[in-house]
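Before the break, one more example. Copy the sequence into your notebook; we will annotate it together after we see the structure.
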Amino acid sequence: MAKAEIRTRATDVSVADFIAAIPQARRREEAGVIDAMHRRVAGLEPAMWGASIIGYGSYDYVYDSGRSGTMCRAGFSPRKAAMTLYLMGHYCDRQPEADALLAKLGKYRDGKSCLYVNKLADVDLEVLEKLVALSWDVMNERYPT
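Here is what the structure looks like once it is written out:
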């Protein structure tokens, strides 16, 4: 059986060009807000990961299965249906802190490591930035550079 190729990798595509090409004006503006937020938290310039993820930093992982790869430490994707923020830290022992922030965030949906926001006006941006920072901190603790 052939090993599956990892498709989400850092690319040389311009983040500015990607954001400028987002067809919906509101989503394009929101992408600028979320990009600025991540730049403040990470202190890094972003890179495109795959076709649609704007990522900050990177880390190497190895699953129990032995499969390994590299992924961005934090990132987001300005998708048509919802702004998707990748909060990679899963919060570990800081779950009470994350739960308290999520309780104050506003209207969102979530998955294992994704936070979906239909429009930024639905959430408290200060709380959102604290969640991004918490995830960034947890990733740096778990995967020191």
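The helical segments are 15-20, 25-42, 95-105, 125-142. The radius of gyration is 15 Å. Try to locate both features in your own notes.
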